[in-house]
Amino acid sequence: MIKAYATVAAISAFLISGCQSEEPSPAPLANGIIYCSEGNPDTFNPQLVTSGTTVDATAAQLYDRLIDYDANQQKFVPALAKRWETLDNGTRYRFHLREGVQFHHTDYFQPTRELTAEDVQFSFNRWLDDTSLYHTVGGSYPFFSATGLDQLINKVVKIDKMTVDIVLNNADSSFLANLATDFAIILSAEYAQQLLVVDRPAQIDILPIGTGPYRFESYRKDVLIRYSRHPDYWREGPGIEHLVYSITPNANKRMLKLVTGECDIIPYPLVSELKALNRKELQVTNEVSPNVSFWAFNTEKEPFNDPLVRQALSHAINREAIIQTIYYGNAELAQSILPPTSWAYDDRGIQYRYNPEKAKRLLQEAGHANLNINIWAMPVQRVYNPNARRMAELMQSDLAQIGVSARIVSYEWNTFRRRLSRGEHDTVLIGWYADNADPDNFFRPLLSCAAVATGGNRANWCHPGFDQLLYSAIATTNAEERKALYQSAQHLLNQQQPLLPIAHSKRFQAQQKDITGVELPPYGGINFRLATKQTAEDDSQ
Amino acid sequence: MTRYLIGRLTVFIIAVFLLTVFSFSLNYFFPGDPITNMSGVRSFQSNYPLVMEMRAGNENIATQYLHYLRHLFAGNWGQSLSNGTPVFADGFQHFMASMELIILALLVAVTLGLPLGVFAASRFRQRSDKAVISLAMIGYSVPVFWLAQLMILLFAIKLGWFPITGQINPLYGVEPQTGSILVDVFLSNSEYKAAAFQDAINHIVLPVLILAIMPMMLLLRLMRNATQEMLQKPFVKAARARGLNEWRVLVKHAIPNALQSVLHQTTLLFSLMLTNSIVVESIFNWPGMGNWLIRSIFERDYPIIQSAVLMFAFVILFFNLLVELYHGWRFPIVRHEQYATR
């Protein structure tokens, strides 16, 4: 018995000594960053998805693109292509590749050569060419079909070892912008070849190889993703050795883990508790980001095929109240589907002001006095909409005032999107997050007739005149002309009102003060390329 | 003793048999294809016909059950429906992570609960006894999830002593081998083993403490009552009359006899802890069986659901068996009572 007590004493002494650790943090902690992400990635190849979680986890960390977009200078800058030129009246782009770009060395792949034109050709043909051996591996390429890039590019031609030509079917001024997105990444053709030999092609998206600033180490579902620095990175890389994504879907837990120091950076902090984060070692950054949340009407269904009904319902919604209640004021009331920061924005003042009387009158004019509708509210948090369900509840009571009774519908996120694509909804609360700086990215993936087929057009709205405007706008490179065309497009949208834009939200991120260089680019996912962690030693110097 | 042993073992084997029948029939109760529910291989996958044949999918139900048992005992528990990882290997790691938590908590509960109970009994109806016993009452009644929130608020947020999720800071790069973090740190080839070990201890303190509180308080009360009862017995009076001091009376006479009835209750304690571990693991993101079960239920991952349920039930049965066997061996009176022999 005495012995047992001694053991207890020893154990408790050990436990207590375990709690006090005031010494400087050991090397692995000082050299690594933990990012508490909100979910599991679907795959490690951003070509296959449009989901923000997957893009955040992979695109900027594992891969590089031919060109990058510099949001500060508002222009395209060289990346894997050191320069490029436009030939044949804008239907042929020639890219000169950078020499000495190394792929990741890992225990599952040892590259024998540097980046060449072959890799670029392989990466594009994967989603472009349905005869490519890898085309059916991994399924579909939603970004490329939604933007029409797979229809736009005719072929990718290798000119010599370090030169590639991309031949377009017609001139398109949004082409470079799409190339600079997180989706147009470059894979290793050599790795793909080796996997074909051992008959495991699917591994290319599970154990990824790229040229990016980090290489893949391990992934445990629901627990973590582990990356380490790519030592032979071709440009300035990160100041840390390890990057860990600690998967934490619960938003409250993410905040707590930031407070206890278990996370260095968290995305989507709860806006309602931002003030509580007012601790001196924490820092909250926000970025006006190109996004929009909207309420789309399924225009293929009665009575939403009548523009008058859509206008009436739009007048019934008190959007100012929504901005205050759902976004806590951290968003801007949307007048157009384009955010005001876009150069093609059409500033006409407030459209569809809250006016229940007018809404009632319009509804009577349209001959629908007592409507029964459903509102589909997405089940997840997104930058553009932190709480769609709550928003739907507010709208429900607004609609009740004009005699419209609304039922709120929600499913698990994947089911939700699948059913939406089948057009089962009356109206839906959803939104869009721009992938690139071109205004085209807000129109074609969301409201073109082509997008009805791919399921991106949540209003199922196909208007030939509107499509005509969009296609004229991308056929020209004259900025003034494009602006005029986009403004008439916005004007037309305003009359037709297939959807009611609600808000442009700010994107937030909270982090420890000692982390620097983590960019939240306005377009696309989080970027850890220049991330560093100041150690205690740096502070004292 | 042999008779007792055989009797207990027979009951155990019958219970396990019923358990496997239940988990086998779950495959038919879950929606979808029973073979897919068993193996995690979907009907469009290329190896499905093979799996179908291996598990005798076209034979009668009895043959299917026999094949199911064969797979079960061979450790071939199928693969996860959501990400294709083998269930048995995965389950083993989760099992070890849970056991680490539960065994440490049991240790804390026993080493603190029993002495406190004896202390309270020896001060029966005095002020210190009342203080201890009301504390035990409160500790036993507090819901685990609420207690966990309070402890997190105090120790992690306000004081910043302990982290709140996971087994270890992921930057130490300790990869799971056994699933039990303290063992994994020991097995890892990290240069910073000492620091990693300390970090793992820091992570484990809060969950262990919270898991330990309820059984500790229960043990305390049981021990107090049992010891008190013994202290009233004639043989204790006799011992006192022989002039033994109070300490010797307690240690030599009262406690060993009190332990007999308390020990029997530990089976109850164990199942209580397993139930609570589900809550604690979810709160602390501890990668144990409870967390595994909850996740699999959310994801409708049938091979994992049935394996986790099977493991939970088996662990409880097995622990009961061990306690009963030990009980019968250590206290002959138990087995004599059972068969009314002398």
UniProtKB/TrEMBL annotation, chain A:
Residues 75-451 form the Solute-binding protein family domain. The keyword Signal applies. One of its GO terms (biological process) is peptide transport. Keywords: Signal. CDD domains: PBP2_DppA_like (cd08493). One of its GO terms (molecular function) is peptide transmembrane transporter activity. It comes from the Bacteria. InterPro entries: Peptide/Ni-bd, SBP_5, SBP_5_dom. It holds the Pfam family SBP_bac_5. GO terms for cellular component: ATP-binding cassette (ABC) transporter complex; outer membrane-bounded periplasmic space. Belongs to the bacterial solute-binding protein 5 family. This is ABC transporter substrate-binding protein. It comes from Idiomarina ramblicola. The lineage of its organism: Bacteria, Pseudomonadati, Pseudomonadota, Gammaproteobacteria, Alteromonadales.
From TrEMBL, chain B:
Keywords: Cell membrane, Membrane, Transmembrane, Transmembrane helix, Transport. The keyword Transmembrane helix applies. One of its GO terms (cellular component) is plasma membrane. It is found in: Cell membrane. InterPro entries: BPD_transp_1_N, MetI-like, MetI-like_sf. It comes from the Bacteria. The keyword Transmembrane applies. PROSITE patterns: ABC_TM1 (PS50928). GO terms for molecular function: dipeptide transmembrane transporter activity. CDD domains: TM_PBP2. The chain crosses the membrane at residues 9-30, 101-120, 132-157, 200-220, 262-284, 304-323. PANTHER family: DIPEPTIDE TRANSPORT SYSTEM PERMEASE PROTEIN DPPB-RELATED (PTHR43163). Belongs to the binding-protein-dependent transport system permease family. OppBC subfamily. This is ABC transporter permease. It comes from Idiomarina ramblicola.
